[in-house]
Amino acid sequence: MNVLTAKILNHLPESWFRFAANKMVNYYLNKYADIKVEGMENIKKAQGAKIFICNHLSNSDGLVLDKVLKEYDPYFVAGVKLSNDPVTNIGTMVVKTITIKPNSADKEALTRIVKAVKEGSNLVIFPEGTRSRTGSMIEAKKGILLIAKLTKAPIVPIGMSGTDKLLPVNKEGDMAKETWHNTEVRINIGEPITFPNKNKEEDKNQYEDRVLNYMMKSVAKLLPEEYRGYYR
């Protein structure tokens, strides 16, 4: 997908844009991604609206997961800057997205997120907050802990591998130069996780660090060893 095509699509009326964007994304996924899924049965073990947490490798991650989780019709929590780029904006129009300002207390976005879950919608969150440029997991942000606390929704971990080869991150940071490649993509869905209890001797920060580490290791164990990185 080149910048010119993306810019043309972005100037279409919204209904046409969504139709054309969906057709284009389905074309790319069907042509290049051989998606293998394990553990779909684990999703039903979580009651009510769910939060799916997953490692983040590529701009194709949301598109792949939207296809895999079609039955659950989730919202994706994504950085607001994605909608400012003509290429990545196509993705935000294809999947249901709640945009959030990174590294800030975005109260408006948090209100929308909590409201969506309370009304029964599922969420997909990439706790690392950005794509890994090495394929290995990087340290997660604590925002997921606040969202989990406010929504009280069950957490379902997902390990994803192969999208780093499907649509690799451009080393220069130029998303327009990212190109698709024929690749097997593996999605491994784990069982819902329960937060560990707080120990008496722990302060708030120590407990949050332990819970975040626990959550992310629940994702890491679903991945091949070389993808686990920080949570190896």
From TrEMBL:
One BP term from GO: phosphatidic acid biosynthetic process
Molecular function GO labels: 1-acylglycerol-3-phosphate O-acyltransferase activity
InterPro entries: Plipid/glycerol_acylTrfase
Phospholipid/glycerol acyltransferase domain sequence ranges: 50-163
Keywords linked to the UniProt accession: Acyltransferase, Transferase
PANTHER family attached to this UniProt entry: 1-ACYL-SN-GLYCEROL-3-PHOSPHATE ACYLTRANSFERASE
Protein name in the entry: 1-acyl-sn-glycerol-3-phosphate acyltransferase
